[in-house]
Specification:
Layout (H helix, E strand, L loop, with lengths): L7 H24 L10 H11 L14 E6 L5 E7 L3 E2 L9 H11 L11 H13 L9 H16 L8 H13 L3 H21 L2 H11 L6 E2 L1 H9 L8 H10 L3 H4 L8 E2 L5 E2 L7 H16 L5 H9 L20 H13 L7 H10 L3 E7 H14 L9 E9 L5 E6 L2 E2 L9 E2 L15 E2 L5 H10 L7 E5 L4 E5 L2 E5 L1 H4 L7 E5 H7 L2 H8 L4 H10 L24 E2 L1 H12 L4 E2 L4 E5 L13 E2 L5 H15 L16 E7 L3 E7 L3 E9 L10 E2 L2 E2 L4 H16 L16 E3 L8 H10 L3 E4 L12 E5 L3 E3 L3 E6 L4 E3 L9 H10 L4 E4 L10 E5 L5 E3 L3 E6 L1
Parallel strand pairs: 1-7, 3-4, 10-11, 27-30, 32-35
Antiparallel strand pairs: 1-2, 5-6, 7-19, 8-9, 8-23, 12-17, 13-16, 14-15, 18-20, 21-22, 22-23, 24-25, 26-29, 28-30, 31-34, 33-35
Helix pairs in contact: 1-2, 1-4, 1-7, 3-10, 3-12, 4-7, 5-6, 5-7, 5-8, 10-12, 12-13, 14-15, 16-24, 17-21, 17-23, 19-23
Length: 852
């Protein structure tokens, strides 16, 4: 706008500057060849000082461009998931712009563009005279100068702190400083534009400058560049613009926020406060400007009279296509998108500070190609939609699934039952939390993963040399001693119990794993150490969702997975087993391409062989196969011929998991309360119980993975780790029944009290056991107590008289004594007994005595 109340001193200063400009005008042209100038005189020296302070070479940098996240469709082609931008801009090549648009721009803005050297001195001097007079603060710049002006605006905007409270005002000031400066500032700006324009003409071709201008220019609001403008205002591409559309856009660029056609209520007001350029007026200001552009095109011979008449008579009818940005635009893929976004905003590969990373995402023109595979994502997302309501009971019931490629760590799929929404809302069916992730990647607190954490007890068991066929007493116990960092702690496993109740049983580790027997795994832990079990999880890349280590706190009940961990971390642990012991960092980004077409450095990721040995991995897989083949995970098995390992998990009555894996892809599904602890059992949503939804969800995702990636047989388990283990049985004969039971159970054996047997020992004393010596660990030992009725035929009966023999038998407790007639003579002595002397027998046994 014209400057008011100009002082005499201000006018004189402007005139001096103008004199200086006149002195250097010719030299500016020479500067395109020889940039070194020499001048004399006060005004000239002032102008020259300004001139010398400008850079020798214009480096416009990269304009703010939107960053885009891509997935891979079933045909292997990249598909856009979402874009992020501060300025809605889609750069195009020269050939992707309709020639009629170039004609419209050049005819209306700079018809001698291809013949001048970057500066139109006549028009520039006239603009500066008007500036000095205070009649205008604008000027007729060449396309090259306008390009320079937009670059300078861009550079200014890139330096604005987006977190500042004055962000919007600071952006506006960038535009105003570059376009509306008056007086001396206006002269300074023109000198700067001219010098830069000359340098641009030296460094770039005319076509490059013209295209650069069209790619960087503002077309109103946050719409930048001709392609974004074409899509936004007319739902078409720059290559397909009509004459009328091209002339409209060429008119808008001259004063974007006045001529924009997306504000039906008007874009400006007159002095009376009346809205101008409204939809009701047919966007009259824009139409007048279009009329001017069409007239210039006709005068320059760029269009025919018929084309002019048709275009000029047409109404301005925008077909607005609102640009969408952010992960909400990704639909069912939004949570995968949000996970990727969190990586960009967190990892220093994308900038040293959070602000640097946020600016890069919104301004840097990145093309982020992710690992998302629609072959798995689509079926998994469909199953999620079909099975799990977004908000079952207004009590935070949620579900999430993730699939990870074995041996690479590439995340192939992330699904969730809720609708992605970054706004704060009371609708529990909407959230921006990525349930599959953690606080760092998805802002989720993770979940208590339950028995899927038993994997680490199994791994530690095998690494200590134990066999999966070792038999243990897996009954619930009230006083089980479990080592915690070498210090035994008492665990009352009866308080925890087993899924579905039951007191447990004596069985092998294979059986405990297949049926997920809590008390059986506690029995295993009693022979290990909780701290070392948690160290296995740590080594396999598992952390708490908070980012803390799982080893920070250690308690006996860690065996059952009470810690809050992300489904991604748990899926990746099972992928480590499936890979034969190779751990790979979970990653969701395959490559990132900058606006210059060069690939950028990716976030640090690696694969490490031997995190667990191949023998341990193969044997763990052998045990985990039983879960999927008739065990607790059978309902999640698609039974498509692909060998699978897996594990189920339940924490109390509010959190469930199902993890399964082939040799190629691992899938984890969580379903439960993402806040609170309300019971999810015996509750139905449609055809599924809440606690059972994990099975069909995992089944659908794994079936899709198997169809796409296949799967081989898992390696054979290690012979030593599958051996039948024999254990020495303690001798409990002579102990009381209670002492014998305690001794045997403390060694892991089951105990069965058999029928009492004949013995002269007290009735509570064990007089026999079976087996003795060695047997399989955890076997049941049968103990037999005395019935108190046992005795022995006296050994010295032979040679006794009849009366002495009868007395000895009576003293031994026999109640049935038969003396043969051969003992009647007074001189007869005992010659034999039946049973024979020294025979152990019952007191009720009949003893026959014969004499000679």
């Amino acid at each position: 706008m014209p400057q008011k109340n100009r002082t005499v001193r201000g006018v004189l200063g402007g005139l001096v500057g103008l004199v200086g400009l006149s002195a250097v005008a010719g030299l500016l042209v020479a500067a395109s060849v020889t940039p070194v100038l020499t001048m004399t005189g006060l005004a000239g020296a002032q102008a020259l000082t300004l001139f010398d302070q400008l850079p020798e070479n214009l480096n416009p940098g990269t304009p703010m461009e939107q960053s885009t996240i891509y997935a891979t469709d079933p045909d292997g082609k990249p598909v856009e998931l979402a874009s992020f931008y501060e300025q809605n801009r889609i750069p195009v090549t020269y050939e992707q712009v309709a020639p009629v648009l170039y004609d419209a721009i050049l005819s209306s803005e700079d018809k001698s563009f291809y013949s001048h050297g970057g500066v139109n001195l006549g028009a520039t001097v006239k603009a500066l005279v008007d500036n000095v007079r205070g009649t205008s603060s604008r000027g007729a710049s060449t396309i090259s100068q306008q390009y320079v002006k937009n670059v300078l605006i861009q550079e200014c905007e890139q330096d604005v702190n987006r977190a500042s409270e004055t962000y919007t005002d600071d952006l506006r000031k960038c535009f105003e400083d570059a376009t509306n400066a008056s007086g001396n500032e206006g002269i300074e700006r023109k000198l700067q534009e001219m010098r830069y324009a000359i340098q641009v003409e030296k460094d770039f071709s005319k076509n490059d400058i013209l295209l650069g201008y069209l790619n960087i220019a503002n077309f109103g609001g946050t719409v930048y560049g001709i392609e974004a403008a074409s899509k936004y205002y007319f739902s078409t591409s720059a290559a397909k613009l009509t004459v009328a559309q091209a002339a409209t856009l060429a008119g808008i660029v001259q004063n974007p926020n006045t001529y924009r056609i997306d504000m039906p209520q008007g874009t400006t007001t007159n002095e009376a406060g009346e809205a101008l350029n409204t939809a009701d007026s047919g966007y009259s200001l824009t139409k007048d400007r279009r009329h001017y552009v069409l007239g210039r095109m006709l005068a320059d011979g760029k269009i025919t009279q018929a084309q002019y008449d048709e275009a000029d008579a047409s109404e301005i009818t925008p077909t607005l296509k609102q640009p969408t940005q952010g992960c909400a635009a990704a639909g069912v893929n939004a949570y995968f998108c949000q996970y990727v976004r969190s990586i960009v905003l967190d990892d220093e590969a994308f900038g040293k500070t959070p602000q640097d990373r946020a600016d890069l995402l919104r301004r840097g023109g990145l093309k982020i190609y992710t690992s998302l595979d629609y072959n798995i994502q689509n079926p998994a997302a469909q199953a999620m939609r079909d099975i799990v309501p977004a908000n079952y009971d207004n009590d935070y019931f949620g579900a999430a699934g993730v699939s990870i490629e074995v041996g690479t760590g590439r995340i192939l799929s992330i699904t969730q039952n809720t609708q992605f929404d970054e706004t704060t809302t009371d609708d529990l069916g909407k959230t921006s939390l990525v349930f599959a992730g953690d606080q760092k990647h998805g802002n989720s607190g993770g979940f208590q993963v339950g028995s899927v954490y038993k994997l680490f007890t199994l791994i530690d068991w095998l690494e200590k040399g134990h066999s999966v066929n070792e038999v243990l007493n897996g009954r619930v116990q009230t006083n089980l001693k479990i080592p915690v960092c070498e210090s035994p702690q008492t665990a009352n496993t009866k308080e925890i119990g087993n899924f579905g109740g039951g007191g447990g049983y004596t069985a092998s580790v294979m059986d405990f794993t297949r049926q997920s027997l809590n008390s059986g795994y506690f029995a295993m832990a009693s022979k290990l150490d909780i701290c070392e079990i948690n160290q296995v999880a740590d080594r396999m890349g598992v952390t708490l969702a908070s980012g803390k280590k799982v080893t920070d706190e250690n308690v006996p009940y860690d065996v059952l997975g009470p810690k809050n961990i992300s489904p991604i971390a748990m899926a990746n642990a099972y992928a480590t087993v499936a890979s034969g012991g190779k751990y790979c960092t979970p990653r969701a980004i395959d490559r990132v391409v900058g606006p210059d077409g060069e690939e950028r450095e990716l976030p640090a990721a690696s694969c490490t062989d031997g995190v667990i040995s191949p023998e341990v991995a193969a044997t763990a897989a052998y045990a985990l196969k039983g879960v999927m083949d008739g065990g607790t995970g059978r309902d999640a098995n698609p039974y498509d011929g692909t060998p699978l390992i897996g594990k189920t998990g339940t924490h109390d009555r509010w959190s469930t998991m199902m993890i399964e894996s082939s040799t190629e892809v691992a899938t984890a599904v969580w379903a439960g309360r993402w806040k609170g602890q309300s019971d999810i059992y015996q509750k139905w949503a449609g055809n599924y119980q809440l606690n059972g939804m994990r099975y069909p969800l995992a089944k659908a995702a794994q079936a899709a993975a198997n169809a796409t990636y296949g799967g081989k047989d898992f390696p054979r388990p290690d012979d030593k780790l599958t051996r039948r283990v024999m254990t020495e049985v303690p001798n409990v004969v002579g102990m009381t029944v209670e002492e014998a039971e305690s001794t045997l159970k403390s060694r892991g054996f089951g105990v069965s009290v058999g029928a009492a047997v004949d013995s002269d020992k007290p009735t509570n004393v064990v007089v026999a056991q079976d087996p003795q010596g060695q047997t399989a660990g955890g076997s049941t030992i049968t103990i037999s107590p005395s019935n108190g009725q046992g005795t022995t035929v006296p050994a010295g009966l032979v040679g006794m008289s009849r009366s002495d023999a009868s007395a000895a038998l009576t003293a031994a407790g026999f109640t049935s004594i038969a003396i043969d007639n051969s003992c009647n003579p007074p001189t007869a002595v005992v010659s034999a007994t039946d049973p024979a002397p020294g025979t152990a027998t019952s007191k009720s046994t009949a003893v026959t005595v014969t004499c000679k």
